[in-house]
Amino acid sequence: MNTYFITGISTDVGKTIVSAILVEALQADYFKPIQAGELHNCDTQKVQRLVSNAKSVFHPNSYALQTPMSPHAAAELDKISVDLKKIKRPKTKNNLVIEGAGGLMVPLNNSETILDLIQPKDKVIVVSRHYLGSINHTLLTINTLQTKGFDLALIYSGDEHKSTESIIKKMTGVSVIGRINDEPYFDKNVIKEYAENFRDKLI
Questions:
Q1: How far apart are CA 62 and CA 84, in angstroms?
Q2: CA dihedral 127, 40, 28, 33 (to 10 degrees)
Q3: Helix 43-50 vs helix 15-26: crossing angle, to nearest 10
Q4: What is the DSSP string of 1-59?
């Protein structure tokens, strides 16, 4: 069984939608180690609402922080500190999709970042979205992961930008699983359609 770690080049680039698509495509379990803010409508609940299969298990957060901020700052407000030793991956014989928070270098505490949550055997999926500065953010993210030897692939979220995607491909050689368009809405049927299109590139 495989573990897929979903990270992004920034916040709000589409990690949760990508997570739902992978969970549906692989009938995988889902785990969001750290949720910061929106506890009444957290990412785990969002993914659960978008997934159709009956096999996936949705595991509880290791940390559920009250404020939508970087985990280190949200934890401070909650008068706690994020301890990596307390972030234990769920025991499952199923494929597992893990969704990070923000980008790779988002601080968890005074010395560790989201990058420290990724394990050597994880398949890392980078979600990239086009905006002014996104080439830099995408290349920095990919370079960091490649330097550490991770197996990774890209998923684009939003409209195509050929020159941007061409230079990223030329400079990194990273394979692209697919693109998620700016849909009018996402529901179980839309997620299932993307899952069917992406499945062969995930296995």
A1: 10
A2: 70
A3: 40
A4: --EEEEEESSSSSSHHHHHHHHHHHHT-EEE-SEEES-GGG-HHHHHHHH---SS--EE
- CATH number for the domain spanning 152: value is 3.40.50.300
Residue 31 phi/psi, 5-degree rounding, is -145, 125
- Note down the domain range covering 159: 3-202
**Tally of domains within the chain:** 1
Instruction: Give the C-alpha separation, 197 to 96, whole Å.
Output: 19
pLDDT tens per residue across span 121-141 = 999 999 999 999 999 999 999
Please, is 173 exposed, middle or buried when counting C-beta atoms within 10 Å of its C-beta (0-12, 13-18, 19+)?
exposed
Question: Can you list the alpha helix ranges (DSSP code H) found in the chain?
Answer: 15-26, 43-50, 71-77, 134-147, 162-172, 188-202
Cα→Cα distances 139→88, 103, 201, Å: 30, 12, 22
User: Model confidence at 203, in pLDDT bands (50, 70, 90)?
Assistant: confident
- Give the three-class secondary structure for 70: coil
Q: Give catalytic residues, as residue numbers.
A: 32
pLDDT tens digits, one per residue of 58-94: 999 999 999 999 999 999 999 999 999 999 999 999 9
Q: Give the type of residue at 125.
A: I
Gyration radius of the chain's alpha carbons: 16
